Amino acid sequence: MANFGFPNPYPPVDPPDVAQRVNEAIQRLQERGALRDDHCPRCGVFDWEVDFIAIPSVPLPNAGLNLQGNVVMHVGISSPSSYIPALTLVCRNCGNTIIHNLKKLGLVGGK
Ligand SMILES: [Zn+2]
């Protein structure tokens, strides 16, 4: 984008580092057999958007999801107690979204 001589107020966010992280994640998924076919399993198009995100999470109550049918579970609105570091692959054609846990891939601390 041309800046017409004005300083760029939105400097690029270190693209080489992001590209390196994406390549490392894609390589890890291929090593583990999770990307046998590069095309979207829903629509067959090859046009992906790749992002790293943190999914806020709260622990389930002790009863988990095995609540009786007549029990209403209220989820409190509060700060999440943890985050799930994730890699998302979003098909630009149909919106199919695939989420991989970065901890399980060994791409962030812990397993
Ligand atoms: Zn698709």
Proportion of β residues? 15-25%
What class do helices, strands and sheet pairing give? alpha+beta
Distance between the termini: 41 Å
Residue windows where pLDDT falls under 50 for at least 5 positions: none
Question: How many DSSP helices?
Answer: 1
- Over all CA atoms, what is the radius of gyration? 19 Å
**Global outline:** globular
From N to C, what is the helix and strand string? HEEE
Cofactors and ligands present? zinc ion
Strand numbers in spatial order across the main sheet:
1-2-3
Classify the helix fraction into a percent range.
10-25%
Q: For the residues shown, what is the average pLDDT?
A: 81
Find the count of extended strands (DSSP E, 2+ residues).
Answer: 3
How would you sum up the major sheet?
Answer: 3 strands, antiparallel
Keywords:
111 residues, alpha+beta, 3-stranded antiparallel β-sheet, 3 strands, 15% helix, globular, binds zinc ion
Topology of this protein?
Elements: H1 15-31, E1 48-57, E2 82-91, E3 97-101
Antiparallel strand pairs: 1-2, 2-3
Residues 40, 42-43, 45, 91, 93-94, 96 line the site of zinc ion (ZN).
Would you kindly provide a written description of the structure presented here, covering whatever features stand out?
The protein is an alpha+beta fold. It has a domain at 38-58 and 79-105. Helix content is 15%, strand content 23%. It has one helix and three strands; from the N terminus they run H-E-E-E. It has one helix spanning 15-31, and strands spanning 48-57, 82-91, 97-101. Strands 1-2-3 form a three-stranded antiparallel β-sheet, with no helix packed on it. Strand 2 (82-91) and strand 3 (97-101) form a beta hairpin. It is globular. It binds zinc ion.
